[in-house]
Amino acid sequence: MIKIAPSILAADPLNLEKDIRVAEKAGCDWIHVDIMDAHFVPNLAYSVDTVRRLREITSLPLDVHLMMDHPETLLDAFLDAGASCLTIHAEIDSDIPGMLDKIRQRGRMAGIALKPNSPLTLLEPIIEQADLVLMMTVEPGFGGQKLDARVIGKIRSLKDSGYAGEIEADGGIREDNIEMLAANGLSVAVMGTALFRNSDMAACIERIHQMPAGQ
Ligand code: DX5
Ligand code: ZN
Prior knowledge:
Largest sheet: 9 strands, mixed
Order of helices and strands: EHEEHEHEHEEHEHEHH
Number of strands: 9
Strand content: 15-25%
Bound molecules: D-xylitol-5-phosphate, zinc ion
Shape: globular
Structural class: alpha/beta
Radius of gyration: 16 Å
């Protein structure tokens, strides 16, 4: 079954708890929390305190996506705040192996994210340390963009490589393109706009949960 992680970037920031309850009731599996530093991406989003408060109000796994150039500065803070999965970008110039190690030592899932134009080869030195690979299907920084279908081929190649961790995709995912992603190996779908602008989130989640996953 495909796991669904609603991205709170598309939620109402002034009514976050209400939207989390809607997502829980609708049957979502994880909560995707975008953190942006206005440097790695041209946008700013959420904080350690958001993760801390989300941990206090929901038992769903918190899938924290660090779109930051220097995540090492806040890694311990996000771990202390209760992140379940911490994903860092393969494109940054930091000690990625050291950070993935630290995340795992704290008993959480270590994720590595790849932008649409970044080659899979960027993962080679670190793939053994990744419990999850996040394939960006849009250029990171903003919700509501159109899915870049070229990334489907990267998802297929990663699946065919025998990678046994979670294969997550993020950006522009909707009900009318998720089946193609699932048929090529997707196991976790991040969905922001398509869920929080949906008049019947539960029905949408129900249909997606019926789809075969990760072949
Ligand atoms: C973009 C974020 C995504 C985004 C997904 O940089 O990483 O998580 O919020 O939103 P939609 O599903 O609206 O593209
Ligand atoms: Zn994200």
